[in-house]
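Consider the subject:
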Amino acid sequence: MNFLLDPNVGYILAVGGLMLAILALFTPGTGILEIGALFAVVLAAFSISNFGINTWALALLILGIFPFILATRRSGKIYFLIIAMAALVVGSVFLIATPEGGPAVNPYLAIFVSAVSCAFLWFMGRRSLEAIAMPAKSLAELIGKTGEAHTDIYAEGSAYVDGEEWSARSQVFIPVGSQVRVIGREGLVLVVEPAQAEA
């Protein structure tokens, strides 16, 4: 476990955990991404606890999640995505502090990881913004269509409908592999029911 005493490892684990958590927002219900994110964050917290942290950087890192959610789930504005990326880069690079208060992370590693994480956020964010910008008619046409539950669906999950993977929720438990019918939508989340409910 000595490798966890390296601030660069703690930095990679923290950013990786955050990326997995964001990815889990886009593919809810699998459980694998959520567990991976939790595991990475716990290891990162252990690693970072051996060093000083800049509380302002931690706050910036946490607060940076909200503009990302605003951009991809609510407003569809690209400037929220840019704010989220800036918060992630600055917050993660300055999170682990040297005794003098400067960043303890190798600057070359920070540049590389920041570039990769920003590319990931940009890709995920742009895909969400494109989906939000879809004509309302296209999304409304999904109502009444049937598909298949790709995960267990209740409070959250995912379903394959009309050739695409969608986040979904239901009032009743629907097991993976079941046929579902779309009865409504909440933003980019489809509200579904078991397809045989009508019968």
